[in-house]
Request: fold
Amino acid sequence: LFAVPEMRFSTPYPEAFDSSDFLFEPTWGGHRVLAFVDPAERAGEGEVRVVDGAGRNVAERLPELAGLAVRIAARSAVLDGELVVADARGRADDEALRERLTGRPGRPVALLVFDLLHLDGRWLLNNPLEKRRDLLRRVLRPGDEVVMVPAIAGEGRALYDAVAAQGIAGLLARRRTSPYLPGVRSALWRSIVVVAPGERGEAMTD
Reply:
């Protein structure tokens, strides 16, 4: 089994910005996790663990994620993402997610994936973000229970306006060349919370 690395965190940032050096991704403000597909002889057969920031494996409470391995075209992988329960309008329902994480029944949980840290026996932490996302796009077979978070290059202000209109929590701005530095919080990753017009809020932390 893999050892659980520390998650990498973003730095709160006060406002949206445009930059060709960054990729911008919506974030729903869900429960941050690392999802492990432990090594197996064949793709689709690895044991699945979903580990949160406290080191707890929450997979046993979320049976809809038990088949995650079949969504990965690899013998082993580690994904970084967030767990979300969506309401009828596609917004995160935090209360419903908390209920599910206690083991109670309810609407299904989805894993929204934004990074790939390990693939088929090789750690990818030092690879640039763009390369990690390209590999993730190649190996992830999306379904109702797991999707790859979309990203746009350069146009952070436009994405901010779009997520604000949809009632989504905010966005993550990540430098295209950035490595994944476990346990590190730096300006290479910036989180920007959506605030109501005319208000000034503090950027979210993950």
The first strand starts at residue 9 and ends at 12.
